[in-house]
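Task: complex structure prediction.
Instruction: return structure tokens for all chains below.
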Amino acid sequence: MQTLDDIREDEIEHDDLSIARALEEDIIFGRLAPGTRLTEDTLLARFHVTRHFARQAIVQLETMGIVVRERNKGATVRSLTPRQVQEIYDVRELLQRQAALWIPLPAPDELIAELTALHEEHGRHVESGYLRGVHETNDKFHLTLFSACGNSHLVQSIELYMRLSLPVRANSMSSKESLRISHEHHRLMIEMLKGRDNWVLAQLCVDHLQPSKKRYLAYVSEN
Amino acid sequence: MQTLDDIREDEIEHDDLSIARALEEDIIFGRLAPGTRLTEDTLLARFHVTRHFARQAIVQLETMGIVVRERNKGATVRSLTPRQVQEIYDVRELLQRQAALWIPLPAPDELIAELTALHEEHGRHVESGYLRGVHETNDKFHLTLFSACGNSHLVQSIELYMRLSLPVRANSMSSKESLRISHEHHRLMIEMLKGRDNWVLAQLCVDHLQPSKKRYLAYVSEN
DNA sequence: CCGTCTCATTTTATCGATAATTTAAACGTC
DNA sequence: GACGTTTAAATTATCGATAAAATGAGACGG
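Output:
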């Protein structure tokens, strides 16, 4: 397997936020396994920044919940027990269901248009196998959708839990079939936004979360 | 009014977390009004720590959500618009209701005992007018109660939103009458934990939030 | 061979100093 | 007197160096 030291990013200028984002991506694409140690010096070498920024990036990752830090011991990529996964998804479902219920239906045309555009881009990335794009448009699609509920704090919390479940969702990125199913779900959501039934929409949003959760739990139980 | 510069804490040794806690207290007791500027040098002088810790304390406060930072401009105590207050409380109610619904009833004796002890301490602080103690035992009471739901992530989010609503709850600390009402609510909650009806308990937990929210919204609308 | 006690190495935590940025005031011009 | 420009003060951001802590390897006694 590729180790952290093999990766170099010479050209780009990094600040702590862009480092955090890069590492976040490494995690979702499985380049950084849960439990991996994250030393300051490694980041320092990889991103060519001062200790200050490497450090800040790590505290960033900590507040984003995708890394855990122990005093005087440094950071490791967070690894989730099945119990934690269940807890996180229970809260995720709670938050996303409520957000869906709060969206005023039928949704305005601009929102439909915006989501449709994202949906099409998402589809293109799925077919071309460009995983980074899939991930980005997927998250943006959901965030845009849920923002329609009108409660920015709720959306922020949803975003937090999307990040917490990053390692869980990583698995599902590998199979094109599951990506297509996910894409189809999105289409249905847009359809529902044109209607008037919040409950169906909410149920759809909750169901949408199940596949990757189940796949992950099945995966860890057999290992 | 007392300004930040008037406060000195010479004796005590501070780290960034204890500074954050001290400032958190200042906010809930109204010593630090929303919108107040928080410069590093001020903290430096007040707590006699190096710039490093003052700085870390501020980023702590930022992630706790009780301070906002603008790049190259520093931090100010977060001030909430009525809209934001409404949003925060909507999510708070959602989270706390669900936590209450998830608590297995009837609750085990140890939990009842623990909560009863906290409840009595809370009562003593209310009567003696020791506000710091009231605040601490109050928060501990709710956290202990909600922890019984078995979902630590949900509890963490509840904690976050308790902090976000700090400025709102500050108002309610001033009147002993409202503290007594709150205390009575707690007693009822303990009673409900002995029973089997999650829905009544949940409703109680939601109702418990209303007074301070309403008082705050009424307060800002007349100013 | 096992434990445990140095000691060197690795890694994180802290510090003081300097650089960069913003803010506000002083100044001059029209 | 209003407006734009320059300068000085205040404040935050960044840096490199040093201190402190944890880790692991090897030495030593049992």
